[in-house]
Amino acid sequence: MPAPPDYSELVSSIRQWSRDLGFQQLGIAGIDLPEDEARLMRWLEKGRHGAMEYMERHGARRARPHELVPGTLRVISVRMDYLPPNSQGAEQILEDPERGYVSRYALGRDYHKVLRRRLARLAEKIQAHSASQSHRVFVDSGPVLEKAFARNAGLGWIGKHTNLINRRAGSYFFLGEILTDLPLPVDEPETNHCGTCRACIDVCPTQAIVGPYELDATRCISYLTIELREAIPEQFRKAMGNRIYGCDDCQLVCPWNKFARFTSEADFVARHALDGSKLVELFAWTEEEFLGRTEGSAIRRIGYECWLRNIAVALGNAPTSEEVVRSLESRKGDPSALVREHVDWALAQHRRASDKSPVTSY
């Protein structure tokens, strides 16, 4: 009889191939997630997913990769750093209410495309050197509990803000998976190192982290600016500040991010000055300019209408000035009722601010 395959040797090769493709770490996990599945179902029952109907549609299937891809025995997880070098500092932009803040992950090229292409090459390499008959690549693109599998694969632990944290790299990295039918040896899961720290919970502008390890997405600025396609609830608009696409506050205060590393991927370098452009400049973009400057970017996914909606809120939170008011007034007649509603709200903030301004006597 032929000798059984040496999977440990294959795993060693897979790790090297992943490094060659630009991934910082690779781990392998089994397919059983009973506790995470139960937690997900409780989260859905509470309606924490908001308008993300796809979360409920797939439900428990997210924790069952063998139902998604029959024959799956292992989940290969990878991570890739994305923190762009030479970009304007996050805190610097957040402290300047005249500039728009874009989450650091979205400053460059769409990560889905970058990681999926590399993972596909890795999967092809694995198949060429094994007896694998089935594999499928995922990059935040299918019903897979990627953070739970990455934790079990030893890539990090899920922090109180529900992001994955790595002891040597912080949390500024993307995740991707290959579901495979190969019975590869699995890695040891990472243990939790959050301790008594609650910095992420305390800093959240909208109190979206309703308890350790529990996020109410309907309150999260990332959800409000990216996932929500309707009017942003007024109760959260002031707290949004100048955040026009996503939010990084919970990561910015995480002590483990002192170990975060800048990416070496040219695709993730900030483009079109999105790391700190003035709000009035971004608000003046035509739809053609928006589509052109967000080509190949994750930002394009929200569409021009929501882009203007988000910036209108940020302009409503900016210091009152002729430039800001003029910018808002230029879109009072916007074709979109959604944009008009947020412009009206923003202008009302500036009228209120003007009414409260002290009168100077001479």
TrEMBL record:
**What keywords would UniProt list here?**
4Fe-4S, Cobalamin, Cobalt, Cytoplasm, Iron, Iron-sulfur, Metal-binding, Oxidoreductase, Queuosine biosynthesis, tRNA processing
Specify which residues bind cob(II)alamin according to the UniProt entry for this protein: R62, D140, L164, L175, S222, C247, D248
**Cofactor: binding details:** Binds 2 [4Fe-4S] clusters per monomer.
At the top of the EC hierarchy, this enzyme's class is oxidoreductase
Return the Gene3D superfamilies for the record.
3.30.70.20
Q: Which residues bind [4Fe-4S] cluster 2?
A: C204, C220, C247, C250
Subcellular location field = Cytoplasm
Indicate the quaternary assembly: Monomer.
Q: Family membership, please give it.
A: Belongs to the QueG family.
User: Could you tell me what this protein is called?
Assistant: Epoxyqueuosine reductase
Q: Which organism is it from?
A: Steroidobacter gossypii
- Gene it is expressed from: queG
